[in-house]
Amino acid sequence: MLRDWLDNPIFIKHVRSRLRPQALATSAAVTILICLCIVVGAYQSRSIGGPEGFSALMVLQFILLAIMGSTQVGASIGSARASGILDFHRVSPQSPWELALGFLLGAPVREYLLTALTIPFALFFVMMGDPDFRGLVQAEVLLVAVALSLHAMSLLGGLTLKGAMSGQNALGFTVVIGIFVVGPLFGAFRLLSGLLIADEHLELFWVPLPWLAFVLLHLAAVFYFFMLASTRKMESERKHSLTKPQAVAAMATLSLLAIGGMSNWNIEGGVQLAALYVLMVVGMVLVGLATPSLSEYDKCLRRARKQGIARLPLWDDFAPNRPTVAVICAVLLATASIFGTTIESVPGQGNVTRAGFPLSVAVAVMVVAYFGLSFQYFLLRFGRRASNFFGLFLFIAWALPLVLGIITFASVGPMGRDARPAMIFSATPIVGVAAASGIFESEAGSGPAMVALTLALLFAFVFNMLYTKAIRRVRMAVEESDPLKPEPDPLGLAPEPAPATG
């Protein structure tokens, strides 16, 4: 059974190319020398029996397996896609799932072996007292789970992003995803050492679970949906990464898991706000994966009209994304509203307040709404140039207020003396979602919350109007160029149709 599973041409090709003796020996020597430096450093600092040395070794393992491995996955699938060899793989007898597994497990095979070389040094720290052997096993299982999730994300990035995904931009993509998506689940390495020692239990829907099982359940959901999207893209370049029902299911699943873990959160509102940010980013990513381009919508609309269908079904892959945006926003609104019931912080101390958190929820929902609507509008209005205009809009609406806020803060000093930095920072949703919760109330009153909410509502209404006009524009263009449409005959010179015969 295992032999049949490993009999994958893609996997074997990567094993032969990435495990060449010379390159492998050089990488192995560098890895062992770094491990020896960690051991010597822990001995010199007299922390060889504490968590510091083991944490440093875990950092090395994370860099090797998660970061460098993800870079190899993205670069491998990107080069295969750019060279055209991926199209030959698609017509091979292998299933899309087998192709995806071949790249997922084969591209980082050298990084798996290099990580294995660090295990004897980890056992040395176990022998010195911290952590115990069970803690080591838990740490390595968590590392592999996080690495697989990052590899799946990098695989999807290589299949989705336009052009070849080189090693450099694959590294950047992996680092960004690791920081903003998987990073919070993995946590700081010092916190990991504390979890290994204390053997904590976390509740999921008030059922206590070992902390490792709790984290693995979340990572399994992330891994499943990214592999589902990768398999669809592996099957066909024209397919969307996720269908619209699958995007909604992914949002609902992650939201349900977040609700199930609320009993572990504190009442000060910081974790609730972080969870809101994570779900907001997840919602925007899912909306982007389910949004059709101008060519896709135009071709599918013409095909539907030839079949006598005036409009596409709402949940068709190539239908406009407004219904999907509405459902994802509704899921986010319901989930985040439940988050707010666990907040009991005292207002006026720079904390998230229970009264202010609903404003943060409203801003986050509006941000997801106008992100999806604006993305669809730019795709339908500008076609191939859409990415340039959409990127310019995001820079002006998100990045520019952040830069201006930093400049203003540096020029006027702390926010307690001048409310202008808080007002400018609130114009970008990167800070505006948090600003609406009342964290700037003692410095600038309710002004930042109003700025964030007003801009989010304005963008949502404006892009909803532009979205509607773009849809009508495409439909009118299709109707005018429809070859089956009868020509106008204002003079009545067209011949009479022949009578039907029995």
Name the overall outline: globular
Strand order of the largest sheet: 1-2
Report on the biggest sheet: 2 strands, antiparallel
SS-derived structural category:
mainly alpha
For the record, give the distance between the C-alpha atoms at the N and C termini, rounded to a whole number: 66 Å
Order of helices and strands: HHHHHHHHHHHEEHHHHHHHHHHH
What's the mean pLDDT score? 82
- Work out the radius of gyration: 27 Å
Describe the 3D structure.
The chain has helices at 2-6, 9-18, 21-44, 51-83, 85-90, 96-106, 109-117, 119-127, 133-160, 167-186, 189-198, 211-235, 244-260, 270-289, 294-306, 322-340, 357-382, 386-412, 420-425, 429-435, 441-444, 447-480; strands at residues 201-204, 207-210. By secondary structure, it is mainly α. The chain is globular. The termini are far apart.
Structure summarized in a few sentences:
The chain has 502 residues and is mainly α.
What's the SSE blueprint?
Blueprint: H1 2-6, H2 9-18, H3 21-44, H4 51-83, H5 85-90, H6 96-106, H7 109-117, H8 119-127, H9 133-160, H10 167-186, H11 189-198, E1 201-204, E2 207-210, H12 211-235, H13 244-260, H14 270-289, H15 294-306, H16 322-340, H17 357-382, H18 386-412, H19 420-425, H20 429-435, H21 441-444, H22 447-480
